[in-house]
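Action item from last week, closing it out:
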Amino acid sequence: MKNFLLLGLVSCIILPGLVYGGLSGKSLVFSTQTDSIYVKLLPNEFSQLSAFTLCLRAASEAKRGYSLLSYATATKDNELLLWHNEDTRLSLYFGSNIYYFALPETDALLRHICVSWESSTGFITFWLNGVRSLQKVGNSGEVVRGGGTFILGQEQDRVEGKFESKQSFVGELTDVHLWDHVLSANDIKALSHGCHSAGGNIINWDTVLYESRGNVNVEDNHDCSF
């Protein structure tokens, strides 16, 4: 009988239905186009947001429309949706409004994506690898309602449901953070180059609780550079 020694195992599959905590140094890898595989993030509770900054790292070779992050409430399935369009634009779906931004095409290289919004001004800004987009104005005086569900890997047409495989994410996602305020340009540039010690105060990738549905691969990414 031969003995085998397994060394350097850096990936695992998280089991459906269990609650896990913290994804520091980890990536979620979605390898299959499907309507049944996703991760639900369990953030710190909030009643409403009058400003936010959402950041994540993503890589995908899909040339179709897909969700990068979906947040649905009982009254709006697209309370917030970060969406990749088939024409390679990135969009922010915000309630009944859609804001399109013409940005470089997503590909196999991990890129750092942030989007921020502030109710008082309505300014919506994307950041790609620490470089700011032009600003657009929308949803002035409104809020993001709390009590909803955050999903990675699928787009919600109702809370945690009505998924379509053609809208699913296939690729790698990591470093998802959400703040209840607009980060400074310096903070976002620092985030784009490595780790951010504070993390989001609504969603902090290092500590956030999460549940999986289907077989989601979790891999060490060794991306932290400082």
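Closing note: The first helix runs from residue 185 to 193.
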